[in-house]
Design goal:
Layout: H1 21-39, H2 45-62, H3 78-99, H4 125-134, E1 140-141, E2 144-145
Antiparallel strand pairs: 1-2
Helix pairs in contact: 2-3
């Protein structure tokens, strides 16, 4: 067996972009489960949630109070309106994680260009402010000056 030698080209191993066996098995199992569910007439949970949001929203709308200046709603029932509106909002909240991407945090640190162990670049507060101004963002938000992070010595 050859030992490590400086400058020697790497040989063997998995090619870049090729998934390992465990990951590929999980992807295959998920694809099979989706295909079986669709073939068997079963719907995905996301689809069921979407249907219930629409259903509860429609029921809530039939029982909602009339808007100011509009004709009185003959089906108005405050308790039913509140119940079905609350159900629609609860289900929509659960459904949101399937439809909307999650936002990621930006790291702000004392030294520009340092790399964290997770590969994220640390940015100084001054550099972050400069980048935000380049993109046309205001120095204050809602009339309050942007917070400044003061890094004291530990």
């Amino acid at each position: 067996m050859a030992r490590f030698q400086k400058g020697r080209k790497k040989t063997g191993g998995r090619k870049a972009g090729v998934r390992n066996k465990t990951t590929q098995r999980r992807i295959d199992a998920a694809e099979r489960a989706i295909a079986l569910a669709k073939a068997g007439g079963k719907r995905l949970a996301r689809e069921v949630l979407e249907d219930f949001v629409e259903l509860f929203s429609a029921i809530a709308l039939t029982h909602q109070p009339a808007l100011p200046g509009a004709e009185r709603n003959p089906n108005y029932d405050e308790k039913k309106f509140e119940k079905f509106a609350r159900l629609a909002v609860e289900i929509a909240t659960a459904l949101a994680s399937y439809q909307t991407p999650k936002l990621k945090a930006v790291l702000v640190g004392p030294a520009l260009g340092q790399r964290q162990s997770n590969g994220a670049e640390r940015t100084s507060p001054e550099e972050l402010a400069r980048r935000l101004e380049e993109r046309g963002l205001p120095p204050s938000v809602f009339g309050v000056d942007a917070p400044m992070i003061e890094l004291g010595e530990p």
